[in-house]
Amino acid sequence: MVAEPIQVLLVEDNPGDADLTREGLETSQLPIALTVVVNGTQAINLLHKRGQFASQITPDLILLDLNLPGLDGRAVLWNIKRDDELRHIPVCVLSSSAAEADVQESYHMGANCYVVKPIDFKTFQSIVRAVENFWFTIVKLPTRRCKTNARY
User: Fold this and answer.
1) What is the domain partition of the chain in residue ranges?
2) pLDDT in tens, 70-124
3) Which of 22, 42, 61, 93 pairs with 136 at a CA distance of 20 to 30 A?
């Protein structure tokens, strides 16, 4: 039996950072399907399965840049964590900003972790592998088909 690929959504407008993330995940021993969108509007449309994203599989993990053109990462995060169908998806903020205000705001809005993007290639790929290892080998995630009626 072949394992179903882990669905990762990367919301990143910087092609270089997207390539580094892709390369980091390609070395994985796990089957990972990476989908990349370049702005917040595309991310929201994908998550709500609108338009060209109507047949997209719901991601198991979202890697979210904060500084996006148009609808920024903060608005995407807010949208995800306020939606009953999406809030269970872990969101890892990957940002070049180390500003305490950005970290605080992201966690306040429901980010599951906040990682500052390093400048150098090797460290960036090391961080991508660490994020992958944590979310897919250490943490137990809910199955994407699982729905709950629990209200807290």
Assistant:
1) 6-137
2) 999 999 999 999 999 999 999 999 999 999 999 999 999 999 999 998 878 788 8
3) 42
